[in-house]
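FORM 12-B: Structure-to-Sequence Request
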């Protein structure tokens, strides 16, 4: 049994990538039931009651292990972690922020923590802070990135593996059995999968979002600076976004994006986050089928 599997407690070393504010207990349970590691996304949640409710909903659907992601910029993490530990969640991932102060608490609560990193220097800092494992996310991934020049999964995963002793999980660009096998060849003990699960039958995002992933051509995503923070977000290049990018007078596209298009039903300005691997995704499939093919 690999060290990562010992930490996760599931059958396959495949972690469901957390997706911002999108939580579906049904999807988390379906991922765990299929033998992988379901993951709640708690980065934007502030109240412990909300955490307890989500965990209870997943528990009603599966007795298999699952975890939760917290963002380290969230000031409510102490209470969230206590709630998770009290509810029997054994493993969390930590992202977006410094891991320096949180790992003693994670360990005092009897939990394991896996820190998500985008660069080698962050990997070394996270291990020093006490992270039990790392999710190493290459630049092709969907989600939040830095504005620094960043390395792809192919470069970053073996680079980090050569510098740390904790288990490494590869993320960014992995959607099928070929990517899964490649991750092991690069030195990782498992994978974290975001975009492929976003375009699954159980995913709670809109049908418009899933369709945009399935229709994404090669080169159909780009990084859009987030405005005030020194970060950028990888999103699908819709016709509206392409038009804005070509307009030299538009300085802050992120500020004009519609974060809740479902409210109006108008998806023209929607921000559909997704990774470069969207170009390789041609069907919306149940998570069980995705996982079975991946580990086959
Ligand atoms: C729309 C979107 C939102 C995301 N939100 C989070 C998040 O809340 N926390 C986090 O750690 N990672 C987040 N990620 C990153 C994913 O969990 C995962 O690491 C990444 O998608 C892997 O790359 P892939 O998209 O190529 O599979 C997000 C990714 C996307 C596409």
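FORM 12-B RESPONSE
SEQUENCE OUT:
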């Amino acid at each position: 049994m690999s060290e990562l599997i010992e930490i996760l407690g599931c059958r396959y070393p495949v972690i469901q990538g957390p997706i911002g504010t999108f939580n579906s207990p049904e999807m988390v349970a379906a991922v765990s039931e299929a033998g992988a590691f379901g993951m709640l996304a708690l980065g934007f949640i502030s109240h412990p009651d909300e955490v307890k409710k989500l965990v209870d909903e997943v528990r009603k659907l599966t007795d298999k292990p699952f975890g939760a992601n917290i963002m380290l910029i969230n000031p409510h993490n102490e209470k969230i972690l206590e709630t998770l530990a009290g509810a029997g969640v054994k493993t969390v991932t930590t992202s977006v922020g410094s891991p320096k102060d949180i790992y003693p608490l994670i360990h005092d609560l009897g939990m394991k923590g896996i820190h998500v990193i985008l660069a080698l220097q962050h990997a070394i800092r996270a291990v020093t802070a006490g992270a039990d494992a790392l999710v190493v996310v290459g630049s092709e991934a969907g989600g939040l990135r830095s504005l620094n020049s960043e390395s792809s999964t192919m470069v970053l995963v073996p680079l980090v593996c050569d510098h740390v002793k904790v288990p490494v999980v590869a993320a960014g660009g992995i959607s099928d059995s070929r990517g899964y096998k490649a991750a092991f060849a690069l030195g990782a003990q498992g994978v974290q999968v975001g975009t492929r699960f976003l375009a699954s039958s159980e995913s709670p995002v809109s049908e418009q979002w899933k369709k945009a992933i399935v229709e994404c051509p090669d080169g159909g995503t780009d990084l859009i600076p987030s405005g005030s923070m020194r970060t950028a977000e990888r999103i699908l290049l819709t016709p509206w976004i392409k038009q804005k990018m070509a307009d030299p007078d538009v300085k802050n596209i992120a500020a004009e994006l519609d974060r809740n298009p479902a409210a109006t039903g108008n998806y023209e300005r929607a921000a559909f986050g997704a990774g470069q691997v969207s170009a390789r995704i041609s069907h919306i499939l149940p998570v069980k089928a995705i996982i079975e093919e991946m580990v086959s």
